[in-house]
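Entry:
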Amino acid sequence: MAEQRRTIGVILAGGTGSRVGLSIPKQLLKIAGKPVLEHTVGIFDEATAIDEILILMHPDHLAAADQIAARYPKVSRVVPGGNTRNESTKAALQALAETADPDDRVLFHDAVRPLMEMRILNDLVAALDEHDAVDVAIRSADTIIEVDEANVIVDIPDRNRLRRGQTPQAFRLSTIQEAYRLAWLDPDFVATDDCSVVLKYLPEVPIAVVNGSEQNMKITEPIDVFIADKLFQIGSTVAPPAASIEEYSEKLAGKVMVVLGGSYGIGGDIVDLARGFGAEVRSFSRSQTQTDVAEAGDIEKALADTHAELGRIDYVVLTAGILNRGRLADVPMDEILEGIRVNYFAPVITARLAQKYLKETQGHLVYFTSSSYTRGRADYSVYSSTKAAVVNLAQALADEWSVDGIKVNTINPERAGTPMRTKAFGKEPEGSLLSSRAVALTTIDVMLSTLTGHVIDVRREEPGHIGLSRSELEASRIAQALAEVGTEPEED
């Protein structure tokens, strides 16, 4: 049997950040709690299609790249990059020549594109089964004009045939090696990307194109830093892929989870699923344990008792929330204050008290927000504003706690069928709401990932998909399988 081809991700991080006016390279700028480079490395490390990662880093900042690389097992080496994109690619190819097979697949990606969707990466790898060179591009919404030296229009190409190139750019290793071998023999060689090298020096090799996305932006100008930060903030992150029951059980074996607000709804489903996968779970709520999540003493006791009993805490999940509707001027002051206590003060004190336990295990803190956090909604202004505050809190904590290895994320469910929502909005049409179990499963996926500083959207329907979303389908399948082995989660 022929040896399986490997797929290697090469992350090009040789820039200096001069155009964004920074004293450090833009790839080391922190956005949503982590350096841009780390966001990008994390995508490749999470991808099942990627076997190895090589980082090309500016020579003056190798130590910073080494620190990031140490947290991601697929990173094999950090190599000094060159002064230009082509010089960095040359350094990467020289490094790959030492260990890689000519038939291996290699993907070159800009480190400063930290918002690439996993779908793009998977499409590229699949396309390499049929092609030796593959680019990523999106349609141009703008009219493209060609001008002469005097800045006068000389041509307006047909926009329907134009695309805006992105990365990664993917190749069979032998193909890109041969293209550059010929390019380096050309004294006039200059190129800004790798597909153009193949196009010029190996014109007989067709270069396929897969669809990119507007989200896969490159951080180049000062405004790009702001836009990228906002994209992270508004929930641009796709949930990690669901695992099998065996994988969940393996990853959660010996782990300890504390769920605050775990008596019913999403919290109850998290408790049931995690226990079904073999985790030690302790659930606290007013109805179960007389625990007030907004009282520091109650939270301190819950965490201390769990740690004393089980010796560790790996995950802390806060699902408790209050949604009172009404115009602000008409809502009683005691209801306003209670909403602020539970929806915002509770996340603050939970973080303060959980930090020392999560530092021991390099664990994970998970909050919940609402789609209303991106824009305040009439009739529940306190709720939507506190949920916006929780998102900002999580992102700040992800930054503060990154040195301790603690991950902090926020789950943003679409309208979910929970008792809290039913109380606020009444009974809604059958099938119009996301199941709480689907949200619970995605929450566990996030806890088992390396994500931090993200808002993870959980939607009922994915684009182009009619019916149940992937998370609902997976949650239903897993619930059925757990029932077959006698650990069926309880119904709400």
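The mean pLDDT is 86.
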